[in-house]
Inverse folding.
C-alpha cells in the first residue's frame, strides 16, 4: 500500500529553496497567476452551479438522479483548490527553512481537525478525511506529519493515494481519544 520507511528521503523535509528563486521567480509568478486562477475558479463555480440547476430540473423528472448530480458537483468543484499547491505566500517565503514554524502549523491543523472529528455528533465522513499539501509540511516532511497524526488517531487514507513530496491524504479512525490527566 503506502511505504513509510524512516530512511526514505521522500518522507523527510523538502529542501530549502534558494532565496533568489523564491523572491525573484516564485513570488512574482504567484502574484501574476493567482488572480487568474481565482477568476478561473469563479468561472468554474458559476458553470457548475448553472449545470446544477439544470440537473435539479432533471432530478424532478427522474427521482433517483439526485445522488448522481450531487456527487458530480462534489467531485468537480470540490476537488479544484481555491489556493493551488504551486502558490507561494509571502509568509511561506519568509518562513522557508523554519522547522519550528512548520511543526506548530502541522500540530495546530491536526489538532483542529481531530477535535472536529471527535466532537461531531453525526460522525460525518467528510470530517474524517484530511488532505495536507506539501506547502503545509514543507519544512518538517511527511514523516513528521504522519507521526504526529498517528498519535491522534489518523492513518494514511486506505483508498486515496498519498505522495510524500506533494500531498498527504489522511483518514481518522473515528474513535475519540482517551482523556489523559497529568
Amino acid at each position: 500500500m503506502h511505504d513509510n520507511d524512516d530512511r526514505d528521503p521522500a518522507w523527510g523535509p523538502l529542501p530549502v529553496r534558494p532565496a533568489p528563486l523564491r523572491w525573484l521567480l516564485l513570488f512574482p509568478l504567484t502574484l501574476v497567476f493567482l488572480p487568474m486562477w481565482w477568476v478561473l475558479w469563479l468561472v468554474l463555480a458559476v458553470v457548475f452551479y448553472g449545470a446544477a440547476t439544470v440537473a435539479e430540473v432533471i432530478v424532478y423528472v427522474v427521482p433517483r438522479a439526485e445522488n448522481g448530480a450531487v456527487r458530480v458537483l462534489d467531485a468537480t468543484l470540490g476537488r479544484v483548490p481555491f489556493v493551488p499547491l504551486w502558490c507561494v505566500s509571502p509568509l511561506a517565503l519568509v518562513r522557508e527553512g523554519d522547522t519550528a514554524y512548520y511543526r506548530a502549523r502541522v500540530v495546530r491543523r491536526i489538532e483542529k481537525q481531530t477535535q472536529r472529528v471527535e466532537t461531531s455528533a453525526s460522525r460525518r465522513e467528510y470530517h474524517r478525511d484530511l488532505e495536507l499539501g506539501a506547502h503545509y509540511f514543507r519544512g518538517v516532511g511527511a514523516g513528521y506529519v504522519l507521526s504526529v497524526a498517528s498519535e491522534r488517531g489518523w492513518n494514511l487514507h486506505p483508498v486515496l493515494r498519498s505522495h510524500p513530496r506533494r500531498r498527504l491524504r489522511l483518514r481518522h479512525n473515528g474513535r475519540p481519544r482517551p482523556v489523559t490527566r497529568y
Q: What stands out?
A: The first helix runs from residue 19 to 61. The mean pLDDT is 79. The first strand starts at residue 129 and ends at 133. Residues 152 and 179 are 12 Å apart (CA to CA).
